[in-house]
Amino acid sequence: MSEPILHITGLNKTFGPVHVLHDIDLDVRAGEVTALVGDNGAGKSTLVKCIAGIHGADSGTVEFQGKPVHIRSPKDAAELGIEVVYQDLALADNLDIVQNMFLGRERGSSWLLDEASMEKAARETLASLSVRTVKSVRTPVSALSGGQRQTVAIAKSVLWDSKVVLLDEPTAALGVAQTRQVLDLVRRLAEQGLGVVLISHNMADVFEVADRIAVLYLGRMVAEVHTKDVTHGQVVELITAGRSGDIGLARPEHAVL
């Protein structure tokens, strides 16, 4: 088994008196999709924001490509090669695909953008991901479907030599055909050697594309298992009760009086 590209040990995060994340351990490996699942309020978004540098962890260690790192800001995460695609996608409707993919990172001088270079890079990135649903990289984002928007947001995240991509509910509110396109793209990211973290409530999507499943329950990582070693029912039990048979917590923490 390959060494994890991202190795998190004992991560804790509090907001005032609320202890949101408790001693979180998580491994993300290159070439694998790790699904991060859990009920609402389990701590998924907080964990992702800690990895992305939006929230600073209170304690714990993070290793990236085998070396200890400190992620204090989104810039630190980006420089390491960690990119996040949030559920709201953060795309500008009034700009085209090229402009969105290079937004804030434009090529060229302070007085003249290198439009040709950016357009070429955008086309090559989409082609490398086998994206065929976008006819022109100069199409305004406002004219794209939900699946196409998600595709652009994911392609944007891999444009910058990223090594780990975190996807927050990428198939939420998509139709069947668009969901198929996005799931295929998620697998292609892993096939290109990236470490992919997929946050999803859709168990069908998780079992279709994930190599491993990490389950958060009340801010604790109760299981990190190979997808092939668990059933749909077991994962649902882990999400809702924190345990399933001999997997997970010995007993729910909230039952202790």
Major pleated sheet: 6 strands, mixed
- Low-pLDDT runs of 5+ residues are none
Strand share of the residues? 25-35%
Order of helices and strands: EEEHEEHEHHHEHEHEEHEE
Count of distinct strands: 12
Task: Tell me the layout of helices and strands.
Blueprint: E1 6-15, E2 18-28, E3 33-37, H1 44-51, E4 59-64, E5 67-69, H2 74-80, E6 82-85, H3 97-101, H4 115-128, H5 146-158, E7 164-168, H6 176-191, E8 195-199, H7 203-209, E9 212-217, E10 220-226, H8 232-241, E11 243-244, E12 247-248
Parallel strand pairs: 3-8, 3-9, 6-7, 7-8
Antiparallel strand pairs: 1-2, 1-4, 4-5, 9-10, 11-12
Helix pairs in contact: 5-6
Can you put this structure into words, describing what you see?
The chain is α/β, with parallel strands linked by helices and 257 residues long. It has one domain: P-loop containing nucleotide triphosphate hydrolases (Rossmann fold, 3-Layer(aba) Sandwich). It is 31% helix and 26% strand. The protein is built from 8 helices and 12 strands. It has helices at residues 44-51, 74-80, 97-101, 115-128, 146-158, 176-191, 203-209, 232-241; strands at residues 6-15, 18-28, 33-37, 59-64, 67-69, 82-85, 164-168, 195-199, 212-217, 220-226, 243-244, 247-248. The protein has a 6-stranded mixed sheet, sandwiched between helices. Strand 4 and strand 5 (67-69) form a beta hairpin. Helix 5 runs parallel beside helix 6 (176-191). The mean pLDDT is 90. It comes from Prauserella cavernicola. InterPro entries: AAA+_ATPase (IPR003593), ABC_carbohydrate_import_ATPase (IPR050107), ABC_transporter-like_ATP-bd (IPR003439), P-loop_NTPase (IPR027417). GO terms for molecular function: ATP binding; ATP hydrolysis activity. Keywords: ATP-binding, Nucleotide-binding. This is Sugar ABC transporter ATP-binding protein.
